[in-house]
Amino acid sequence: MKTYESLFRNYKGQASGTIFAHFYPITLSPAAQPIGEDYDRPFAQIAALTIDGTSAWGFQQQRFKSKHSYSAVPKLKNYLNYTFKRLLEMEQSAPGLYFSVSADGKWISFNTGLQNPHCADLLAIFQRYESRPDSPPRPDWVYKGCYTPNESLYRNHFGTQVPDIASYSTDSRDFVFDASYRLEKDAFDHLLDRAKLRAGLPNATDEVVRTYLRGAIENLVPKIRRNYKVAIPVYYVEEKRMQLLLPFASVTEANNMSCFLIERDDSIKSYRLKTIFDLDQAYFSARLITRPDKDWLDP
């Protein structure tokens, strides 16, 4: 299986050979009175098929809506792209398990890991792009829609074979915080600049920020012991490993949450602080594992 940089075009000027598939825009009006084409619409249609519906794939808070205004369903686009990249990794060691290819080699499909309201898997289907000598470079595949395994378009090309979903860990300890481990509360000098902004203390001294962070961290373990869902498992794409998210609030606005990203170190039975995420970054990483609980990660 060829490797790709992304499922769809992520930025202007991205080389076509690094993109898996082209997602054709959808015309918004009859050809007689065209008002443009919507490149986001194919993804909105996928969102509408899911068990959670379209509303689950957009941000709720205005600051994140503004930041990700390029799409009505930014959570879904991020999820699909990184799920696809994970499947590519897994396919290298288990060819044929995560991508179904038609007998004639002209169609390919992968399991999005999402389901429709009837709990049927949603499988993304693509047709090989047939280039002409005078045509510009295009991605290798063209998106044709999401279908369940029992729908005729899927069965006609792939039979009864259903590709497996992406997985990220087989170690149950990666999904919960071990309360017998120590949570480090002093090793965050490398996070101070970011912490000042996230904690609402941009003009505070380093020592003031350290004191605030220590207090925030000390309060987390008792909360986790009473509610294990406070610690949210994530797959941190940049490091390709499982880690955990823990919340902390801004000094100036209690509802303005950010997250500590922590990593388990079994050799010293502790959790180390890796970095600080804003809520949108945190959600993107957490959604690869599961739809996060709304107790605090609901941007």
Gyration radius from CA atoms, angstroms: 22 Å
The largest pleated sheet is described as: 5 strands, mixed
Order of helices and strands: EEEHHHEEEEHEHHEEEEH
Residue share in β-strands: 15-25%
Characterise the protein shown here:
- The chain is α+β, with helices and mostly antiparallel strands.
- The protein has two domains: 143 residues, no CATH class; 116 residues.
- Helices cover 26% and strands 22% of the residues.
- The strands form three sheets. A five-stranded mixed β-sheet has the order 1-7-6-5-4, sandwiched between helices.
- The relative contact order is 0.11.
Descriptive labels:
alpha+beta, 2 domains, 5-stranded mixed sheet, 299 residues
How is this fold's topology laid out?
Layout: E1 21-22, E2 26-27, E3 37-38, H1 41-49, H2 62-67, H3 74-93, E4 99-101, E5 107-115, E6 121-128, E7 141-147, H4 152-158, E8 182-183, H5 192-198, H6 206-226, E9 232-236, E10 241-249, E11 257-265, E12 270-278, H7 279-287
Parallel strand pairs: 1-7, 8-12
Antiparallel strand pairs: 2-3, 4-5, 5-6, 6-7, 9-10, 10-11, 11-12
Summarize the structure in short.
The protein is α+β, with helices and mostly antiparallel strands and 299 residues long.
